[in-house]
Design a protein that fits this description.
By secondary structure, the protein is α/β, with parallel strands linked by helices. The protein folds into two domains: 126 residues, Aspartate Aminotransferase, domain 1; 227 residues, 3-Layer(aba) Sandwich (Aspartate Aminotransferase, domain 2), CATH 3.40.640.10. It has 14 helices and 14 strands. The strands form four sheets. It has a seven-stranded mixed β-sheet with strand order 2-10-9-8-7-3-4, with helices on both faces. A three-stranded antiparallel β-sheet has the order 11-14-13. A two-stranded parallel sheet has the order 1-12. Strand 5 and strand 6 form a beta hairpin. The protein is globular.
Amino acid sequence: MKYDFDELINRRGTNSYKWDSAPEDVLPMWVADMDFRTAPAVTNALRERIEHGIFGYTKVPDAYYDAVTGWFARRHNWNFKKEWIIYTSGVVPAISAIIKALTVPGDKVLVHTPVYNCFFSSIRNNGCEAVELPLVYEDKTYRIDFTEFEKAVSEPSVKIYLLCNPHNPAGRVWTREELEKIGDICGRNGVTVVSDEIHCELTYRGHDYAPFASVSDRFQSTAVTCVSPSKAFNIAGLQIANIVAADAEVRKKIDKAININEVCDVNPFGVIATIAAYNEGEEWLDDLRKYLYDNYLELREWFGTNYPQYPVTELEGTYLVWVDFRSTGLSSEQLEALFLEKGKVWLNEGTMYGAAGDGFMRINIACPRSRMRVGLERIGMVLGSL
């Protein structure tokens, strides 16, 4: 492996939300960012830009659009026009603006739970109601009950289905066949698919990411997709994301909402980092994916050997491992407090992601393996006392 992901880097005192929100004796394995340096190409591009010394308002250049469209065509066989792109400051602001653009207060937005917690706030903040449809959990993985899905989608007040592809925290990378069923059902019922694909680069053996809009021309013409290099290249703090929508009228509505929400401007560093990541970061990313998956395999083996009563969900994508602690009889809130207070390790409690997450915990393994092992030791201290 060309790149060193074993290096231990002290992030305390850098205004890291993940690390500086935690007491000194607590190991944070919660917030979804990584403890690795970003790709050298990104760092070099940022350094060159910083040396210029002037940081005025940003005009997004053609090179940015070329980098984005080129990356998705090359890596994921998804071809779209640069005119379809609306840039903004993050995927969450993007989702909020899309909901504002395509609904009116009182409308319903359907989500499959457990799902990314910010979906709920984006829906609520736009005066809409979240409809939670639990995924089916069996054999250490999740699937969609399409009969129940069609029933939920056919409700006239449901206007948007908010897809998470790959799915956080369930770890699923939806197959083309599953995405086709989703698109067909939503199409029959006049429901817009809005797909959060921020984790799209972080997929593992045998589980290739398929952009929802790439599955068919029909989906391409109606879907709205949110993407960003921030998760894969660990640049969330640079605040950059893209909305891709083929329909000109839909784009017009979204652009208006982006401006109403005042998230229409991006900073120069996000633009430069995106260009560098997409043009020069592939080799680094491929090494990262191998390292992350080896972390997952070690964590899964550790649980299987020491605590087989707590099943580890199959991880097809993301670096966020979902573990079933329901046999403890404790709620997720109780588990989080126990791990924090007794184990000095901070995990995400499952009910953040909807009622279907109760009894589960989410563990961030995007860190050097030695640091993950310390986290597992602390988790073991707690589990051994139950």
